[in-house]
Write a structure and sequence with these properties.
With 391 residues, this protein is an alpha+beta fold. It has 12 helices and 9 strands. The chain is 48% helix and 13% strand. Strands 1, 2, 3, 4, 5, 6, 7, 8 and 9 form a 9-stranded mixed beta sheet that branches. The longest helix has 32 residues, at 274-305.
Length: 391
């Protein structure tokens, strides 16, 4: 039963979470996840949770997937971010030819993939494949990935090949062993410092046709709800991460108050202050609303995905909900950081790390505030313009 497998994995992640939380400063200082932590997560089964059972995976239900993502993010934002991207590998591997998909999973289901969406490379057509060059940023988990996928403009004799839409070049993505890439140490960021998100580069590397795929609009080589709308379902991971960070912040603030802290110049302890209690209650209400919307919308989308490829209209609705959930989670973290007082500004305080992490999360390209305008336009009868999903 996928539910049983999901519950077991969720229980295992929750049991392991305190070990992750205890290493938060170490993770941030290293600017990447320690190798032993990655291997522990791999051993738990995190990177096989979406892999089909036919290839040794767990194929857990989506609600458990999101709860696991949140639990990791509550322990440490960078771990939640990196592990979630690595755990989502199977969605994008499914866009490869079936023989390549089978080959990648031939040695087991615990494959980790990192990647980049912007087409910042060129792929020159040659006999049997392409010669690929380029440099891509924000490749989270590049240091411990087994494979890296990158997106390119296809060229022939140095000239971009026209794509299916007028004025837009043909794009192709490539899934190559991580060892083929140069890792460039650029990851000095305000938040998600431990996510290990450097630039990577290829220099005239050969990529066979069997390793090429269409990152946007490609047809999955395996069937199932996880593969009928990769970007749409993946958007919920961002919402789950944000809600997890917010849960961690609320737990941190509660622990500070219960420890008997008093703010400077205050007449009473935090826990006895009605003003503090109000702030705590409002933050908790925001988080409850975010979690309720995450649960209802993700279950609805999961049911839709069981019926086949997702429509653009579904993606519009999902992105509207995801951006709202993240906005609510940001309010929770901001409120908790403010209510905690001056002690929360120190680097040793988990709350300041959560504050930085969640504000960096909001900058991902998929989470643009345009999602609200898109949903409003759809309500008024305008056709969706986003590139994800079927008409």
């Amino acid at each position: 039963m996928t539910g049983d497998a999901g519950q077991r994995l969720l229980d295992a992640v929750r049991d392991y979470a305190p070990k992750i939380a205890a290493r938060g400063q170490e993770i941030e200082t290293a600017r990447r996840l320690p190798r032993d932590l990655v291997e522990d997560l791999r051993a738990l089964g995190l990177f096989r949770m979406m892999v089909p059972k036919s290839h040794g995976g767990l194929e857990v239900d989506f609600d458990y997937n999101l709860k696991i993502c949140s639990a990791l993010s509550a322990a440490d934002g960078s771990t939640g971010w990196t592990a979630t991207f690595g755990g989502g590998s199977c969605m994008f591997l499914s866009l490869l030819p079936r023989a390549t998909f089978d080959e990648i999973y031939a040695d087991g289901p615990d494959v980790i993939v990192a990647g980049a969406l912007p087409p910042n490379g060129t792929a020159e057509i040659v006999d049997g494949g392409y010669r690929v060059s380029g440099r891509w940023g924000f490749v989270s988990g590049a240091h411990h990935a087994d494979y890296i996928n990158t997106n390119c403009v296809v060229t022939k004799n140095g000239v971009p090949v026209p794509g299916p839409a007028p004025g837009v070049p043909l794009l192709r993505a490539f899934m190559l062993p991580a060892a083929n890439y140069e890792i460039i140490d650029t990851w000095h960021a305000a938040g998600m410092k431990g996510s290990g998100s450097p630039d990577v580069a290829l220099h005239d590397a050969f990529a066979p046709e069997s390793r090429a795929f269409d990152l946007i609009g490609g047809e999955p080589c395996v069937q199932g709800p996880y593969f009928f709308g990769q970007f749409t379902l993946h958007a919920f991971h961002f919402a789950a991460m944000a809600a997890g960070i917010a849960q961690g912040a609320l737990d941190d603030l509660t622990a500070i108050a219960l420890a008997g802290k008093s703010r400077a110049l205050a007449r009473q302890r935090m826990a006895d202050s009605e003003l503090f209690q109000d702030a705590l209650g409002r933050a908790e209400a925001d988080l409850k609303a975010a979690l309720a919307l995450l649960e209802s919308e993700s279950l609805w989308c999961w049911r839709e995905a069981h019926n086949g490829p997702l429509r653009r209209a579904t993606t519009v609705r999902v992105l509207q909900s995801v951006v709202w959930i993240i906005d609510a989670s940001v309010r929770v973290v901001d409120a908790c950081h403010t209510a905690a007082g001056g002690g929360s500004i120190y680097e040793s305080a988990p709350l300041q790390r959560r504050l930085r992490d969640i504000h960096v999360l909001t900058q991902h390209a998929l989470l643009r505030k345009q999602a609200y305008a898109d949903s409003g336009a759809a309500r008024l009868g305008h056709a969706p313009t986003i590139p994800f999903g079927r008409d």
